[in-house]
Write a structure and sequence with these properties.
This protein has 273 residues and is an alpha/beta fold. Helix content is 49%, strand content 9%.
């Protein structure tokens, strides 16, 4: 955190909260609630490296591996699956037909590559499970104990599998994921649609809700959605990048926050408005 963020948070640390400044909290899933961001990165790398090596073997350019820092974080993190495929391919100057969501995993289409990544991701989850960030679960527990509504907004189409497997599905009063987004025709991050939809399903206007995100695209979505506060969680030591994307407060882990501190940050933000 910056010195100013620390001062805002420290000013409320440990004191009684006379009243919450927000009525709902909308959490991203991967990298915020569940330790699945790294699993996504592994699955994306395996899929794209296999594809790029196959292209190189056919004489379609030299192989250059998919990297976490340059490719995962910049092109696919937080985005809907097929959009992530298309964004990465564009970054490499590769054009493929979109195909159909029914394409076989690995088919040489945007959807086929996305389906291959999904299959690899599910294999890892089935084998290794989905861990949780205990500090996030603790904060959710405190919010619920105070009557705050809690929702989840994620681009993942695997949220039901992951939330049920990790046992935290009952914590969320609303879940807007990739499947719901497709049904409702919502735009993916960095558009604010899924956060706004999750807030609406909780019956709370964005002005009275906060967003907690770890991806740049998700922070941009929260910042553009009219929310009371956007908290960036810098799992990648990317504090400055999240601030530039629009996060009001950036922490390394939610253990650094409390409800009192969030209230103080919202009051400070409203005072600056």
């Amino acid at each position: 955190m910056t010195a100013s963020e620390n001062s805002v948070f420290a000013s409320a640390g440990g004191t009684a909260v006379p009243g919450r400044e927000f009525d709902a909290a909308i959490f991203d899933m991967d990298g915020v609630v569940t330790r699945t961001a790294a699993v996504h990165s592994r699955a994306w790398k395996r899929m794209f490296d296999d594809y790029l090596q196959a292209r190189a073997a056919r004489g379609l350019g030299a192989f250059r591996e998919f990297t976490h820092g340059q490719d995962y974080l910049r092109c696919v993190d937080g985005r809907p699956r097929y959009e992530g495929v298309a964004t990465f391919l564009k970054s490499r100057g590769i054009e493929l037909p979109s195909g159909s969501p029914d394409d076989a995993p690995g088919a040489e289409t945007v959807c086929g590559l996305g389906n291959r990544k999904n299959a690899l991701f599910n294999e890892i989850i089935a084998r290794e499970g989905a861990g949780l960030y205990e500090s996030t679960i603790a904060l959710i527990g405190m919010l619920r104990a105070q009557g705050c509504k809690v929702g989840l907004a994620t681009s993942s189409k695997n949220s039901a599998l992951i939330l049920n497997k990790s046992g935290v599905a009952p914590l969320f009063g609303s879940v807007v994921d990739g499947i719901v987004s497709a049904m409702l025709g919502l735009q993916g991050k960095p558009a604010p649609d899924i956060f706004q939809a999750a807030s609406a399903r909780l019956g709370v206007h964005p002005e009275h809700a906060i967003v907690i995100e770890d991806a740049v695209s998700g922070v941009q979505a929260g910042a553009d959605g009219g929310f009371a506060l956007v908290i960036g969680v810098a799992r990648e030591n990317n504090h400055d990048e999240l601030r530039r994307a629009g996060a009001d407060v950036v922490v390394s882990d939610l253990a650094e926050t409390s409800i009192a501190q969030i209230n103080a940050a919202i009051r400070a933000k409203r005072g600056r408005a």
